[in-house]
Amino acid sequence: MDELELARAAQKGDLNAFNHLVFEYQEMAFNLAYRMLGDPDIAADATQNAFISAYKALGGYRGGSFKSWVMRIVSNACLDEIRRQKRRSTVPLEPYDPEEDEEIESPFWLKDGSPSPEAILESSELEDAIQKCLQSMKQDFRLMVVMVDIQGLDYQEVADSTGLPLGTIKSRLARARGKLRECLQFFRELLPDIFRLDGEGIQ
Known about the structure:
It is a single chain. By secondary structure, the chain is an all-alpha fold. It has two domains: 3-88, Orthogonal Bundle (Rna Polymerase Sigma Factor, Chain: A); 108-195, Winged helix-like DNA-binding domain superfamily/Winged helix DNA-binding domain (Arc Repressor Mutant, subunit A), CATH 1.10.10. It is built from eight helices and no strands. It is globular and about 50 Å long.
């Protein structure tokens, strides 16, 4: 069965069909939650809660991309968790810079992939730096970077997942990329030369 057939079967109470859909998207959902929340245990809980919510809300699925539909539920679960964390924390998130309003090419080193153990070891420090910078951003901007640059969703999929207009997505993404690049200059020794801003790479 294809995705739509599985979703329709799940709507009729076929738990096995829903489990197939969970298996298909659980890694993507967890990666989104981890990038948004920065803690693997909290991300795992948010992912589990999102899929429970998705199962309960299957009656509201009206066709189209099931991936976009379920990722919207996951992103909402993450934003809810961030709001709960903010109520418990006094550490402010970094405000956005309105001057950063130009879209740059999606950084290739943000893309998910399947690296070898050696490559994972070599990139672990850069991975940590990226995650720290993501956590310093406003959640609305963070979500754009995670969905587009890390998970590889196109603008329309992000629009379907978030309910935002394409123009808003592009604007937030441009600002988020600018803030991410600026933050990563504090970890400049980990970056490919092209992303440095001090004269050693492209200005």
